[in-house]
């Protein structure tokens, strides 16, 4: 079982889209059983996987179970996970506003909470994809500490290098030394790419120099990414022949190191 954590301390980079496309690739193209973990209280990953306010969530007695309950150690992933309404083969731990309280009043073992409980899911799931909040707080650290592979989407804009550098510092100085030895950025996914413009081309070149053999195919920007979100679907299921779908297929092939089934 491999755990893929998608992270960056900034919104708008395509983090959630990348996490959803990775879940799609593993489940649909490779036939894997996938657990998607939504650690963002905005629940964007849950929404992209078809979860709506009317979706029936897992319950225990009279209590609804969501991602926050797993992080707090109040139930296991298998208790709270539900089938993703728009993506067969994927179960999802739904993100809710309860995660805000977790971040505000974290348990002592927050950073290691997922690292300790997710391995128990290896009999039910082949792979796990974790989407983290657009910050470098405790929930993001928990997602990173559980990771086998760290995936970093980077929008082709000026702040990108600073954000990647900050994330790398956190991984190196906070996690890799004691919590998750050897943890490092596994893959960079350039997003919102427009090859007609000079800046995106130069940024991809610089990223490739800084992270050799760890930069995927750039994902071209298109309105279909937003439209798919509004439809509660991944880009690859909503418009499988679109440019972003093709780009994500190539990127996910590299990230997983496997050819589609």
Order of helices and strands: EHEHEEHHEEHHEHEHEHHHH
Helix proportion range: 40-55%
Distance between the termini: 17 Å
CATH first level: which class?
Alpha Beta
Structure description:
With 261 residues, the protein is α/β, with parallel strands linked by helices. The protein has a single domain, classed as Rossmann fold. Helices cover 41% and strands 16% of the residues. It contains twelve helices and nine strands. The strands form two sheets. A seven-stranded mixed sheet has the order 5-6-2-7-1-8-9, with helices on both faces. Helix 1 (15-29) crosses helix 12. It is globular, with a radius of gyration of 17 Å. It starts with a strand and ends in a 5-residue tail after the last helix. The mean pLDDT is 94.
What are the salient characteristics of this protein?
261 residues; alpha/beta; Rossmann fold; 7-stranded mixed sheet; two-stranded antiparallel ribbon; 16% strand; globular
Chain-wise SSE layout:
Elements: E1 2-6, H1 15-29, E2 34-38, H2 44-48, E3 58-60, E4 63-65, H3 67-71, H4 77-80, E5 82-83, E6 90-93, H5 98-104, H6 110-117, E7 127-131, H7 138-145, E8 149-155, H8 160-175, E9 185-191, H9 198-210, H10 224-230, H11 235-238, H12 243-256
Parallel strand pairs: 1-7, 1-8, 2-6, 2-7, 8-9
Antiparallel strand pairs: 3-4, 5-6
């Amino acid at each position: 079982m491999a755990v893929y954590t998608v992270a960056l301390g900034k919104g708008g980079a395509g983090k959630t889209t990348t996490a959803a496309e990775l879940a799609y690739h593993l489940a649909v193209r490779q036939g894997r059983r996938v657990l998607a973990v939504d650690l963002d209280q905005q629940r964007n990953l849950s929404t992209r996987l078809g979860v709506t306010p009317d979706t029936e969530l897992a319950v225990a007695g009279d209590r609804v179970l969501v991602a926050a309950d797993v992080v707090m150690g109040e139930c296991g992933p298998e208790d709270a996970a539900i089938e993703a309404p728009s993506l067969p083969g994927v179960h999802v731990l739904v993100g809710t506003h309860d995660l805000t309280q977790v971040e505000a009043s974290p348990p002592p073992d927050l950073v290691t909470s997922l690292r300790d409980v997710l391995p128990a899911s290896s009999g039910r799931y082949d792979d796990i994809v974790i989407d983290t909040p657009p910050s470098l707080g405790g929930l993001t650290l928990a997602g990173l500490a559980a990771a086998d592979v760290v995936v970093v989407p980077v929008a082709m804009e000026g702040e990108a290098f600073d954000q990647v550098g900050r994330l790398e510092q956190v991984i190196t100085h906070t996690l890799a030394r004691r919590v998750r030895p050897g943890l490092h950025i596994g893959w960079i996914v350039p997003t919102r790419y427009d090859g007609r413009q000079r800046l995106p081309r130069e940024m991809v070149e610089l990223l490739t120099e800084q992270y050799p053999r760890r930069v995927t195919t750039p994902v071209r920007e298109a309105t279909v990414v937003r439209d798919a979100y509004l439809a509660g679907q991944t880009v690859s299921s909503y418009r499988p022949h679109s440019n972003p779908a093709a780009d994500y297929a190539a990127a996910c092939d590299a990230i997983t190191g496997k050819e589609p089934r």
